[in-house]
Design brief:
This protein has two helices and eight strands. It is of the alpha+beta class and 146 residues long. It has a five-stranded mixed beta sheet with strand order 2-8-7-4-5, with no helix packed on it. The protein has a three-stranded antiparallel beta sheet with strand order 1-3-6, with no helix packed on it.
Length: 146
Amino acid sequence: MMCKLSATKRAASAIAVAVVGLVLMLGLACAKAEAPQAGFKGEPTTGVVPLTVNFTDESTGEITSWKWSFGDFKTDTAINPSHTYDDAGTYIVSLEVKGPGGEDTEMKQYYVYVLKISEAATKEMLEAETAVGQCMADAGTAQRVR
């Protein structure tokens, strides 16, 4: 009888170990990675041509890949890219992030405003700066003469 009881205990012990192992494996297989949530900011978002914007990823969750679309048919896969806009316009920017828990995209419409100053306006601005500079110089000279 002792032999049967010992064999039964061993079998029960082996079954218990197998059940614990199975439960652990199922638990690990069922554990999901945290789903990514896309988020970003850029600075500056308004300026004149050429405008370089520094983008910062603010996404959360487990992320393994990034894809930025800058609205001018150019993309990047860096985490925190810089992008130069060479043409005036209003641009939509999006960031797609992927990870073991899924994927997510954030899109910001009308996010980047790039302005182009005309050559005439640039010339007038330079002339005005020169005139102001001359006035300041004259004012400085006039004060010293007194």
